[in-house]
Design goal:
Layout (H helix, E strand, L loop, with lengths): L8 H19 L5 H20 L5 H28 L5
């Protein structure tokens, strides 16, 4: 399992924006905000299960859950904001 030591919210936000910009170029379709939220929740749940079943200590598991949640939240915000900026979210 990949662990992270810290989350740079700005970097995660920009990463989300880049993913959205790339997706708009490659897929060229609109997105519905509830679908993005559903994928975000699935990603969170998957990462929580991965951490839960890892060999990390309970303290490190708690820390990894916090960091990954922050990363997913910031990345999704950047993703949505970029899609809104280019008029691709409905």
């Amino acid at each position: 399992m990949k662990t992270i030591n810290e989350v740079n919210p700005t970097e995660a936000y920009l990463e989300g924006m880049l993913w959205a910009a790339y997706g708009v170029k490659v897929i060229s379709c609109d997105a519905v905000e509830w679908q993005i939220d559903a994928v975000k929740e699935c990603a969170k749940e998957l990462k929580e299960k991965e951490i839960e079943h890892s060999a990390l200590s309970p303290t490190e598991k708690e820390n990894q859950n916090r960091l990954w949640k922050q990363w997913i939240d910031e990345t999704t915000k950047g993703f949505k904001d970029e899609l809104k900026r280019v008029g691709r979210i409905v």
